[in-house]
Batch of 2 targets.
Target 1
Amino acid sequence: MRALYYHRVVDRRAAGDAYGATAITAAELDAHAAELARNWRVLSLAEVDDHLASSRPLPARAVHLSFDDGYRDNLRAAEIFESHGLPWTLFVVADAVLDGFVPWYVRLAGALSDAPPEALAAHGGAARFKEAAKRAVMAAPADRHLAVLADLLHAAGLPHHTEALWPFLSVDEVDDLRRRGVEIGNHSATHPNLTRCSPAELDQEVAGSQARLEAALGRPVRFFAYPDGRFDRSVVTAVGRTHDIGAATWTASHPLAPLRLRRFPVGPGVGDLLDVLSPRYPARYRARRAKWELRRQVRRVATRPRSHGQHVAG
Ligand SMILES: [Zn+2]
């Protein structure tokens, strides 16, 4: 079985968008859905869970589809998947859909989209600033994520907006999707690095968000997706106590461990989709990712500024 995840549906991808990799156009998603409906066996996460819980083998060419975070543009994904009769899971950031909370990385995306190009050029461009900011935020304790980001933006002279560049679904819209058959999963309360939470924060992010979503939707919420695919033993334990499935990303070593279900992001073309679905993809992805990581580190060392001043990578 291959589990895939998407984030946003857009009209078109802007060239040089530091977040382009997380977006797919409606036309591209429709082409994915047509291929999946024709040639693959798309399962709901409840069906996957049934197979895993009863140790029954999954059918050949099994695929699971999910969207992470809960953006309003996912309503288009719902129409597309519905028109092809495909089940899917929507993992929502609970405080974003329930309270209008804007997670740190959406604030960063907003700042990058508003920043004058000269301001970003001084930091090596949007993509480099984004990577450096992400490293700094993810390394900080969860209760410091927003403050660390605000400090970085301030130091770099970049705008800091707290409204969402990518609006989230309202809870009524999420509930409407649920009625239409979409599986609603929990993607934490605020999308922090869960491995940097205190025990009380972890409980809030995993069990607290689940309770709030269940109260709002009037239904059990059984599935969880780790924000940014980050987990450690205590995070997995917290999720296992409260949820039936913990959906991870490509870093999970086993494809079908229920609390570390391996998922892959997928590029926009049908060729990208077929690539991800090929049996040899996990090994190839790992190798490509390792090469990318190495290149990035070499570049970082080569371009490290002599005076550390306000450089965000410092
Ligand atoms: Zn996410």
Target 2
Amino acid sequence: MLDLLNLPGVRPVDLQSSQGVITIVAEVLETSLPACPECGKPLYRHGHRKIAFADTPQQMQPVRLEIDRPRYRCDACRKTLTLDLPFLDERRRATRRLVDAIRERCLGTTFRGLAEQTGLAVNTIKNIAQDLIEELEKTVRYETPVIMGIDELNLAGGYRCIITNLATNSVFNMLEERTKAHMKPFFRDLPDREKVEWVCTDMWRPFKESYGPYLPNARLVIDKFHVVRMASDALEEERKKHQATLDRNERLKVKKSIRWLTLKRPSSLSPQEQEALKLVRTGIPLLAEAYDFKEAFYGIYDEPDKVSAMRAFEAWENTLPQERFPKFHALARTVHNNYEDIFAYWDAPTRLTNAYTEGLNGLVKVANRMGRGYSYEIIRAKTLYAKHARKVGSMPRPGEGITSVPTTAPQSQIEYGPHIPTLIELSDAGDLG
Ligand SMILES: [Zn+2]
């Protein structure tokens, strides 16, 4: 029989295919009688035992490998034993090459799918993945970002803290909770923490209070999108107030037609929408006024430098009518309360935002689709160690440039973490879950 197994020390003697599973029976090639691993005396034969192991699939079918293993006995030690076969992972009841193949794929596909392909139990796949994750946790290290984004993500049943490298658009780390108790030890133990020069977050105070004591050179920029979103919220408040004065039919019409019209930026309005906006102007002047305040607030961020931006904000605040638009007034107070950190936007070397992190919300959908069986830890590992996304943007270590021997060893690369746009592409294509 042709040796389609290609495993050292065994020889296939039978092959059957039934109900979508290939069963290969193999026998152990015996040479001379081995010595007892305990005392060194010669062993003698003591029957057989057939044990089944999963092997790598063939012809797209799971392979069940039944190995007829000789048992031995040592008279001196009074022990019966089976000799190790180096290609077997006894704990997983699988060949090592199958375990390797699963490790290669388990963070990029579903455990259920791998279980179906290999004939192993979902739990075995999960255990192999857990071992891999523990190893990755100890061995993979991403370069500490010079420009760091800190944001939140509602993932696998809770708000997680996601830390990104904004210069390379990659995920740096993910923390289980965005509480100070979780974040402080992370920043305290962060290698090269003096390297962080800029941090971009929203206005959630625990972020600043957590990294503040540990990142001595970091300056905060409050994320632009979290700031301007408040202007949109203030406009929404005025739209709802207007709707409340209408009857049901009119109300629905306003909600459907005016909501997106007024939330969009004017530059992205179609000619028809621009006409519709003119009608809103003449028909609902109060809403139009709120719209103009929203737009003027967004306009602050179009200013070319810090001084002009501060002036634009001052002018905006000074024209707010005293008795109206309470949410715009609240926004003005928020800007004053975070003044330095908001206007630091114009001091940073590039226009920093966490816009890409927001794109990771797509991962949330993937996580939900994957459904039960995926803990936060596994989703975190699938995100943080996704192989295809990790390759993008990694660089050879200094002195190991193009002239050196090509290697795939991760140690020889400076890694920045998985590239967010690539992660998003993978999750959209369904390749991540
Ligand atoms: Zn012995």
